[in-house]
Amino acid sequence: MFEILSQKLEAVFKKLRGHGKISEENVSESLREVRRVLLDADVNLKVVKEFIENVRRRALGEQVLASITPGQQIVKIIHDEMVRLLGESRADIADAPNPPTVILIAGLQGSGKTTFAAKLARFLLGRGRNPLLVAADVHRPAAVDQLVALGKQLGVPVYENRSASAVAIAGEGVDFARKNVRDTVIVDTAGRTHLDERMMQEVEAVRDAVRPHEILFVVDAMTGQDAVNTARAFHDRLNFDGVALTKLDGDARGGAALSIRAVVQKPIKFIGVGEKLDAFEAFHPDRIASRILGMGDIVTLVEKAQEHFDEEKAVRLEEKLRKARFTLADFLEQLREVKKMGPLDQVVGMIPGMSRVPAGTQVDEHALVRTEAIIQSMTPEERSRPSIINGTRRKRIALGSGTTVQEVNRLLKQFEEMQKMMKKMSRGSLRKSARGMRFPLNQ
To answer: Which CATH number belongs to the domain containing residue 367 in this structure?
Structure first.
């Protein structure tokens, strides 16, 4: 997410931090580069001009120029202005005083509306709500089937009526929710390949029929400025309450995220960061600004860990670490837990400073797969006592896992080092040991 934008901005910041003293000339030169980076990322021109001017006004203040670390001060100003641009604080969805809360999903075809509706249902389930999905897209043949399949996967009911109009289906869905004690109704409406009057009239009719408490506009972040133009057109007709950006895990340059709120003056509320139903996040302007500027996002990383890690397993693992009984079987279990958190490059991207890794460096997902295969090819005794793995056993493990003896040797060596580190940690040398921890980066 935002990798290219982050790397380019980090290059500008590196120059800024390198100056012991900052002058108006330094500031102007750096801001010209920031302006160029933002325009390359397809950020709206008007938004860029206002952003640069606000940063310039604050950066040229006497306190900044005379400070001990002026470069760092200017980076902080850019961060603060980016947070302001993105919305300052988290904007939650509405909660009706008398259930059910009705959420209307709108957007163009191909933006990922139907998948977003299911992701939102999963998100709300995790917060104690009882959602109902309503399949009101009567134009795309597979839309109803897709929503039904996703609902079944989540254990969330889907209201459908293949012989009625979108307006009738939406109204019937809300009635069904009231009768079946569902406190949230998510209405998936039809999209088109482009804006057209018929589509807009149908969405308006659905809105007027169910009077939603929340209208969310779903837009593909990869469409850049087109996303902003479409958002403006939808907002003029529907006056939506918030935006959901999808496909931010793809080759999105960041322009839509940085432009859309400033143009339509409505908050971004959710982002989709992958195809799976759990690849979904509430939008926090301060956290996203930190990610864009290479400062990481530890809070979201911790939240993901809490969501995916089993608390009882964590307690058992802590006990094993304290007693230095961490085995390859435990390592395999932890590897699988980490994989549940999502693509490794996204997880690593939330760690502060990781944007400063040299360009071209990649997180090797395949290395994790190979590691898992090697451990799975071992016997239970070998996982518990890797010291018994001799040359013959190493050849057998390599053959069974489709790897090489060298890769088996490397894993055993790394695990041996890890065990030594665990022993030091159990004796209280946590800080010294932590310095030795590495992430699986592949040049």
So the answer is: 1.10.260.30
